[in-house]
Amino acid sequence: MRRSVKSALGAVCLIAVLFTASGCFFRVSADELYSLPQASEEYLLLQQELNNILSTGAVYSPPVAGSNRQSVQLVDLDGDGVSEVLAFIRAAGDKPLKIYVIGQKDGEIYQADIIEGEGTAFERVRYADLDGDGTLEIIVGRQVTSALSYVSIYSMKGGVHSHLGSAEYAELTTVDVGGRSVVVVLRLPSAEQPGEAEAFSLAADGEMVRTTTQLTKGLLTFARVQSGRLRGSVPALFVEGADSANKTMTDILVLTENGIDNIMEGALAQETARDLAIYSSDINKDGYMEVPLPRELKSQSDAKQYAIDWVAYEMTGERHNVFTTYHNRSDGWFFILPDEWVERLGVRRDDSVPGERAIIFSFVDDTTDTWTDFLRIYTLSGDNKYKRAAIKGRFRLAPDEDAIYCAEIVRSSVGGISITEKIVTDNFRPIYSDWSA
Predict the structure, then answer these.
(1) Is 348 within 8 Å of 299 (Cβ atoms)?
(2) pLDDT digits 0-9 by tens, 145-192
(3) Handedness of CA 328, 334, 340, 343 (dihedral sign)
């Protein structure tokens, strides 16, 4: 209670400051200044409606996954500029999972519809315009058992729901295709059939169109599902998971007006198999997704080091090499490797100095197995990080909240390759968002 009162007082004081800053002045008493803000009549009516629902013994049951996890959600379903209220409820009965759709018009609050379904919990909910008419369909995932979920798609045209289709799923998402959304569900393989993807699109006449494509044989689990674009701005879904050997694989599902197609069926999928659990990303920020294909570098320890080739695809399956990187996930940066470095590159790590973590790049002579260091990249932390960044020969790369990145060129030329400060600064990138699990 103390926290609520404190928040309310803070809100009142903030409003007073805003009025003053905007040149508005009001004569108020001290009692008026510190009185709690009054709820609107619409809010009170809505709260009363929700209390009436809960008074029957029902309880709130928010979705357990996805981005929409609130028990009560505000969504403008019909595109009229006024949000409907959707309350996610669990009650007794054969269809215990209920979505109460509450409308508002001319200051009145009313119960517009109830969407009921079987299951133990709402798994997730999404809202998407499947036919491009400006209104949103409701896509509801429900958990039936711990191992089984079903999605149902509802139209809300006219303010009342109509059921468009349902399917079992392990993963669920929506993808924008030509100004409208397509629902895609993924199913894991069973003893009888391989995994598959099914796309749901809504035709102009209201008919639900369903198309399927098989996923790569051997893909047993899903780790990441994300939408992106192929070369040519083709919308696609990147499905990544593991096989029985725990190798990460990538399927690319192309979505067009004709349905869904897996361009990685056959040999193409096997070429993406990798030991590292790393996932597709728009690594060069050109608007197209790239698939990571790691290859092992030379190392002087048991800890493996990798160069990562990033590959972009066309919808035909044709691939384009973008560039190659060395990723230092633990320190939060990656480095674009010049082509002439990679074939004879060795990498090792040195954490022997407190507050100083170094990645050392070396040229490796294949004949003598001699390692010649040519570049060090440091991650500096601690009270004296600025002093250590200023050591002769070091130059700054990029600041971080808690660390300083800097580099030192040990040799400017080795094995026919040149290393300059410009190459190092141009090719260094902090990692601002997570690129793996």
Answers:
(1) yes
(2) 988 999 999 999 989 999 999 999 999 999 999 889 999 999 999 888
(3) positive
